[in-house]
Design goal:
Blueprint lengths: L12 E7 L36 H23 L5 H6 L7 H17 L1 H11 L1 H17 L7 H14 L6 H9 L5 H30 L1 H22 L14 E5 L2 E9 L4 E6 L5 H11 L10 H4 L12 H10 L4 H29 L7 H6 L2 H14 L1 H13 L3 E3 L7 H20 L4 H29 L4 H47 L1 H29 L5
Antiparallel strand pairs: 1-2, 1-5, 2-3, 3-4
Helix pairs in contact: 1-5, 1-8, 1-9, 3-6, 3-19, 4-5, 4-12, 4-19, 5-6, 5-9, 7-8, 8-9, 8-15, 8-16, 8-18, 12-19, 13-18, 13-19, 13-20, 15-18, 17-18, 17-19, 18-19
Length: 557
């Protein structure tokens, strides 16, 4: 029998390997709580205030708020993409096209660096105030953009906008983890990824028309007004999902002398029931006994106005700097580093297209007007929506199917096979766009390549987020902060390097090189699919030591 440390942690558990499906369940021996085939991970408490116990309607309202969060800030931040030429041509701004692109790079950089400030803020004071502060800060500094009169002011507006809006990159995925079980996350993280992507595409699609009619400054101001409307709606709808849950029924899997064991731990405030049983023991009987012996306590749900309190999710003790240190600790885990790399390259190649869209399509032979440059983003919107079932729902389905084939055992890497399509079509989309544009192909081909890469980027984003959260769930927020920091530093480097790359090598050579780089980068999923379990085994000791240390100090649950 495996031993538990003082924090109730079995250090032989492999993080990211779970007992997800009851393949030998006997309904006659189980009560109604565990008759379902899928094991609920994490196990919900008996408290009505536990987000896992909220009604489906209430959960969907929170998902809607995440969509508002993506669209409110995303529209205000991204409406400038087709306006860069117009902004640079405006004599009142005194900003060059190079500095406009540099500002976008700084925005990406501080969306990443802001994780060191905004992620601990959300953990210490609650996710609800973090969302509202992020929206308010982004609104204010996006409103500054039409009034800039120098390169320095433009860069400052982009830095501060990125810093305040940093939660957009990691907080929604952690909110989804608060609300939904492991086997549901792909579906809703897919919705978040689609919202994040389409907000970035719809904004420039519409702002081009507004700019032609009213000027580029009013295009930005109207986007900021929309941001303000979303902020007001979120104030009355978004709830706090930080919840201090008692340890529940866990389904981690251990290895002892090459034999897999299902380790079950059930605890409440009065007693701990810890059992480690071998596969030929009736696991389901133990699970049924543990649940039937648990003292059920029901807690009244909060009223509507109580849910709107800004600091209802605040911690009693100040652990702000502990949260910062935990982010630094997560740099030691290879699956987290690879997830950041995957997320980075998934958006890296679309950003290459996005950076050059205005330059390529406004020049001969296309000669797109400002409004048509915006309308070109309709292609990415369509492709992102088409790819959602593949990027979202299907990775949950694949995970459950694989668990059924492996006697109910699920691995974090089970979601990764969807990346095969990205590996094949990603290079093709870059060649269609870049080589096609260099040879002056019909505009439809250029926009098709642009849209295809946008849809594929959603596949990469969803896969990287779910993989990171599945690998080290107890440290999910800190892990996601690392993922986003890596992603955004990569995009910052891209925005600084892409213009000289194209100037020196030309459109065709640049995109052929990018196609082969894309093939190699996305192809690393083959390596992680086969070695991910090894890395999780190798890091389980230091991971559980980290979790135990921070759990004893009350930093995490």
């Amino acid at each position: 029998m495996a031993e538990l440390n003082s924090s109730g942690i079995n250090c032989e558990d492999i993080p990211g390997t779970t007992h997800l499906v009851n393949t030998k369940i006997n309904p006659a021996e189980l009560n109604e709580t565990v008759k379902k085939e899928i094991v609920l991970i994490p196990h919900p408490s008996n408290n009505l205030n536990d987000p896992l116990n909220w009604s489906h309607r209430r959960k969907l309202i929170q998902v809607f708020c995440l969509i508002l969060f993506c669209y409110g800030g995303g529209v205000a931040s991204c409406c400038i993409y087709p306006l860069l030429v117009a902004i640079a041509a405006d004599p009142s701004t005194n900003v060059t096209i190079d500095n406009l692109n540099n500002g976008t790079g700084y925005n990406f950089l501080f969306l990443g660096l802001g994780q060191f400030l905004m992620t601990p803020f959300a953990q210490q004071f609650g996710k609800r105030p973090a969302y509202l502060l992020a929206m308010l800060g982004n609104l204010v500094f996006c409103l500054w953009m039409p009034y800039v009169h120098s390169n320095g002011q433009w860069i400052a507006s982009q830095i501060l906008s990125g810093l305040f809006y940093a939660p957009i990159e990691s907080l929604p995925s952690n909110t989804i983890t608060d609300l939904f079980f492991e086997h549901e996350r792909g579906t809703y993280i897919g919705i978040y990824s689609v919202s994040l992507g389409t907000s970035n595409f719809i904004a420039p699609m519409l702002s081009g028309f507004v700019a032609e009619a009213l000027g580029w400054k009013w295009a930005v101001k109207i986007a900021v007004i929309f941001d303000a409307v979303c902020l007001v709606a979120m104030f009355f709808l978004i709830e706090e999902t930080n919840y201090e849950r008692e340890p529940g029924l866990e389904g981690e899997v251990t290895e002892s002398e090459g034999i897999r064991l299902a380790s079950t731990t059930f605890s409440n405030k009065n007693e701990d029931i810890n059992c480690t049983v071998s596969p030929d023991t009736n696991f389901d009987k133990h699970m049924s006994t543990a649940i039937s012996n648990h003292e059920i306590e029901y807690h009244a749900g909060k009223g509507y106005w109580a849910r709107l309190l800004l600091l209802s999710g605040a911690r009693k003790k100040n652990h702000f700097f502990d949260y910062i240190l935990m982010i630094l600790h997560m740099f030691r885990f290879p699956p987290i580093l690879w997830s950041g790399f995957l997320y980075g390259v998934s958006l890296f190649f679309y950003s290459i297209i996005n950076t050059t869209e205005s330059i390529i399509l406004s020049a001969p032979p296309y000669n797109f007007s400002t409004s048509m440059l915006g309308l070109a983003y309709l292609g990415p919107v369509i492709f992102v929506l088409l790819f959602y079932p593949y990027a979202g729902w299907s990775i949950d389905w694949i995970k459950i199917r694989k668990a059924k084939k492996h006697k109910g055992i699920s691995q974090a890497e089970d979601r990764l096979p969807v990346l095969f399509l990205f590996m094949i079509l990603g290079p093709a989309s870059l060649i269609i766009y870049g080589v096609g544009a260099a040879h002056g192909i019909n505009w439809f081909g250029v926009i098709f390549g642009m849209g295809l890469m946008a849809g594929l980027s959603i596949v990469g984003a969803t896969s990287s987020i779910t993989y990171a959260l599945d690998c080290y769930p107890e440290a999910g927020m800190a892990g996601m902060a690392v993922v986003i920091l890596i992603r955004n530093v990569m995009n910052f480097a891209l925005d600084y390097g892409i213009t000289p790359f194209i100037d020196n090598c030309g459109i065709q050579t640049t995109y052929i090189a990018c196609a082969f780089i894309c093939l190699g980068c996305i192809g690393t999923y083959f390596l992680m699919e086969r070695t991910g379990l090894y890395w999780r085994k190798m890091t389980k000791g230091k991971y559980w030591h980290l979790v135990a240390k921070y759990r004893q100090r009350g930093v995490i649950q």
